């Protein structure tokens, strides 16, 4: 009976998926010396140098305090720096941070290849898009 409840519970199933994909992502990003989330934050900075902390939070769907902690860690590692203008903080990659661009992209590609090998490329892409859409729906329920 409990097995049926767990299979039919979005909360349990989503958390199980999160644990499995997090382990895969951590394995693939280990070579970079970064967490997957830190890697994706750097990717966002590469795309838009001088991005605001608020914009990073919006893009990555993270709370401001989480973004601040990630930026602080990456700053200590010498990968990012920020410039404060008034009440706004703008984030830039250092040369050392920029040097990780290819490594981070390879980590991301390896992760995608890894789950695509199991699920199939089309199913992996469709599942990702569907989960993104469902997350948006649940997040903006008001």
UniProtKB/TrEMBL annotation:
Give a yes or no for keyword Magnesium in this entry.
no
Reading the lineage from the top rank, the first entry is Bacteria
* Protein's UniProt keywords contain Transcription regulation: yes
Q: Name one Pfam family in it.
A: MarR
According to the UniProt entry, its GO molecular function terms are:
DNA binding; DNA-binding transcription factor activity
Positions in coiled-coil regions:
none
Q: Write out the entry's keywords from A to Z.
A: DNA-binding, Transcription, Transcription regulation
Q: Which residues form the HTH marR-type domain?
A: 7-136
According to UniProt, the name of this protein is HTH marR-type domain-containing protein
Q: Which organism is it from?
A: Paenibacillus nasutitermitis
